[in-house]
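U., I forgot to send this yesterday:
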Amino acid sequence: MLGSTGIDGTIPKQLHTSLICYAVSVKNDNTMRGFFIVFSIFWIAANSFGQTQHELNEAQYKLYETADKELNAAYQKILKEYKEDTVFIMNLKKAQKLWIQFRDAEMKMKYPDREPGYYGSIQPLCWSIYLTELTKSRTQTLKIWIDGVEEGDACCGSVRTKE
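Result:
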């Protein structure tokens, strides 16, 4: 309870009352050390952000969802900008389907199916972190087709040169 705050970031009433009572008893003892301890506890409690594992998991999953939206936006932009190049588009779609299979296999390799609780309560957070990393990496790869390459790059293949 000492490190927790209410939903709005305030100190719960029970903790606040306990601190005041302790401060009064410390004042009666007239010890500076006791006051410092009470002040420190009060300050920590007032400035702590209590996050449950569930809240951390949700926050990281939201970061993954943002990364996934960026990936899909990049993919859609490439489809639009390169629509005349039907051979490229066909191969992009194949590559993206294979990347999704790779991503899923990569996740299973890192976190093989085990009995519930094997990886602990932090596993959903770790899963989302790695999924986000893989997704951001794929987005960076696809952005090459959006950004283009410098003129004179003899190995640019289907990537357009920068304008």
